[in-house]
């Protein structure tokens, strides 16, 4: 029976990471899967819970059944994977998608030798403030659609290019219309209006701006770095956010060693993101704590910087996630397959580890158990690859291997 599953009317209207959509009118069997990553070690081999000759049944936006193809129950429609690989949808737990303009010239200058300093954030702030709501929404949905077609079914995104009470709240309102994983990053850099009064800006971020933003966000973040916010300021901002029910996550140790990672662990942040410059004490703190280390290979690629050492973290027992950090300055890629390939080639990860970190690892960084794995009861976020194995994501870098995507059981219209 041909696949007649309903497709999204428009991926622009979908909620990335949102609630399960209304029942789509029946179940879908995906069978003859050559290699299936479940990320449930009880279901298959190794940490990926790998099954061969497998099948999946999707029903009501969830995975209803997983097992050997020969034992698969009947469903309302059937998709024959013809021996291809199936993986969980990617979970991109770190992006900055509410912005206007781009920074091509800055990238060009960097590739001619100029270093990345994060000073360019302020030029995106200027462009973002000038843009109307429709422009910001259209930009956001363009990148979410790009992500979805590359297999990303859950996305976190942040404010941080507004830096006034009204602009930060506006960015979060727009983000929250498209995803539940929304992060308040008023503390991205000190707003230009407060250049001579950083303490006054921290008061704003922890006071009126937090009041306006907290209702629209789940997370609070701070860029803890020289030239942005120091450890004391970061602590004040994260603590104030936590007191309003927001869960901390931290931009930590991106450009230099610093207090960010250990602060994240101390405050039980869900994630410390970047983790590029780490001391042994930072690694030990992550290994002893519950904070996930989220590595962002697109950032080092696009800033021509030294990559974080994933091997060191994994060998210490740290939970590692991979994300794009998609933003117009330091990492303008929306592609999780690209990040997987770079992490394997440049950061000491095995293809299996990188796949896990890009799916289950991202879910851990968002404290989600319903996404990032294909096990009964989990969200039916499924990626069918044009490949016999997930290893091809690293083995065939730059090749568009995402053939089909289901988000919450609904088939995504692809560009092809
Ligand atoms: O995660 N490091 C701070 N923020 C972003 C960069 C944002 C920008 O350059 O516009 C990041 O890399
Ligand atoms: Fe970032």
Question: What is the architecture of the largest domain at the second tier of CATH?
Answer: Alpha-Beta Barrel
Share in helix: 25-40%
What is the succession of H and E elements?
EEEEEEHHHEHEHHEHEHEHEHHEHHEHEE
Mean pLDDT comes to 94
Tally of discrete structural domains = 2
CATH homologous superfamily descriptor of the largest domain: Metal-dependent hydrolases
Unreliable stretches (pLDDT < 50, length at least 5) are: 1-23
Count of beta strands: 16
CATH class of the largest domain: Alpha Beta
User: What fold name goes in the CATH topology slot of the largest domain?
Assistant: TIM Barrel
| Terminal CA distance | 22 Å
Main structural class: alpha/beta
Q: What's the alpha carbon Rg, rounded to whole Å?
A: 21 Å
Shape summary: globular
Strand content: 15-25%
* Count of discrete alpha- or pi-helical segments spanning 4 or more residues: 14
Ligands bound here?
A: N-(iminomethyl)-L-glutamic acid, fe (iii) ion
Main sheet properties = 8 strands, mixed
Family: Belongs to the metallo-dependent hydrolases superfamily. HutI family.
Function: Catalyzes the hydrolytic cleavage of the carbon-nitrogen bond in imidazolone-5-propanoate to yield N-formimidoyl-L-glutamate. It is the third step in the universal histidine degradation pathway.
Domain Amidohydrolase-related: 86-387
Keywords: Cytoplasm, Histidine metabolism, Hydrolase, Iron, Metal-binding, Zinc
Commentary on this structure:
The chain has 416 residues and is an alpha/beta fold. It has helices at 104-111, 121-130, 133-149, 165-176, 198-206, 208-213, 231-243, 260-266, 280-288, 297-303, 310-315, 336-346, 351-365, 392-395, and strands at 28-36, 51-59, 62-68, 77-80, 85-88, 90-92, 152-158, 181-187, 219-224, 247-252, 271-274, 292-295, 320-322, 382-385, 402-407, 410-411. The radius of gyration is 21 Å and the shape is globular. Strands 1, 2, 3, 4, 5, 14, 15 and 16 form an eight-stranded mixed beta sheet that branches. Pathway: Amino-acid degradation; L-histidine degradation into L-glutamate; N-formimidoyl-L-glutamate from L-histidine: step 3/3. One of its GO terms (molecular function) is imidazolonepropionase activity. 4-imidazolone-5-propanoate binds at residues 103, 161, 188, 254, 330.
């Amino acid at each position: 029976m041909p696949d007649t599953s309903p497709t999204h009317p428009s991926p622009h209207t979908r909620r990335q990471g949102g609630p399960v959509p209304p029942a789509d009118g029946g179940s879908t069997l995906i069978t003859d899967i050559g290699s299936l990553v479940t990320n449930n070690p009880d279901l298959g081999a190794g940490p990926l819970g790998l099954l061969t000759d497998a099948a999946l049944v999707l029903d009501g936006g969830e995975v209803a059944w997983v097992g050997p193809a020969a034992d698969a129950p009947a469903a309302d429609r059937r998709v024959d994977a013809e021996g291809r690989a199936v993986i969980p949808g990617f979970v991109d737990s770190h992006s900055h998608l509410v912005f206007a303009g781009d920074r091509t010239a800055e990238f060009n200058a960097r590739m001619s030798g100029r270093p990345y300093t994060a000073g360019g954030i302020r030029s995106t702030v200027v462009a973002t403030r000038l843009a109307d709501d429709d422009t910001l929404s259209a930009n956001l949905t363009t990148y979410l659609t790009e992500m979805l077609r590359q297999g990303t079914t859950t996305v976190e995104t942040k404010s941080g290019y507004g830096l006034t009470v009204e602009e930060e709240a506006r960015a979060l309102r727009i983000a929250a219309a498209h995803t539940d994983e929304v992060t308040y990053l008023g503390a991205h850099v000190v707003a230009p209006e407060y250049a001579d009064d950083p303490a006054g800006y921290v008061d704003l971020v922890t006071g009126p701006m937090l009041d306006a933003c907290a209702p629209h966000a789940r997370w609070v973040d701070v860029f803890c770095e020289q030239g942005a916010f120091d450890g004391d300021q970061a602590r004040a901002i994260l603590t104030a956010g936590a007191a309003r029910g927001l869960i901390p996550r931290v931009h930590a140790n991106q450009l230099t060693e610093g207090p960010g990672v250990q602060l994240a662990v101390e405050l039980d942040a869900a994630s410390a993101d970047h983790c590029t410059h780490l001391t042994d004490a930072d690694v030990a703190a992550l290994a002893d704590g519950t904070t996930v280390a989220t590595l962002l290979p697109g950032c080092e690629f696009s800033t021509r910087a030294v990559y974080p050492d994933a091997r060191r973290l994994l060998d210490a027992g740290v939970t590692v996630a991979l994300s794009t950090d998609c933003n117009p300055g330091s990492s303008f890629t929306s592609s999780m397959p690209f990040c997987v390939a770079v992490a394997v080639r440049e950061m000491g990860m095995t293809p299996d580890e990188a796949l896990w970190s890009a799916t289950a690892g991202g879910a851990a960084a968002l404290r989600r158990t319903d996404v990032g794995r294909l096990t009964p009861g989990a969200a039916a976020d499924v990626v069918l690859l044009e490949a016999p194995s997930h290893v091809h994501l690293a083995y065939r870098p730059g090749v568009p291997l995402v053939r089909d995507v289901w988000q919450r059981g609904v088939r995504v219209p692809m560009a092809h």
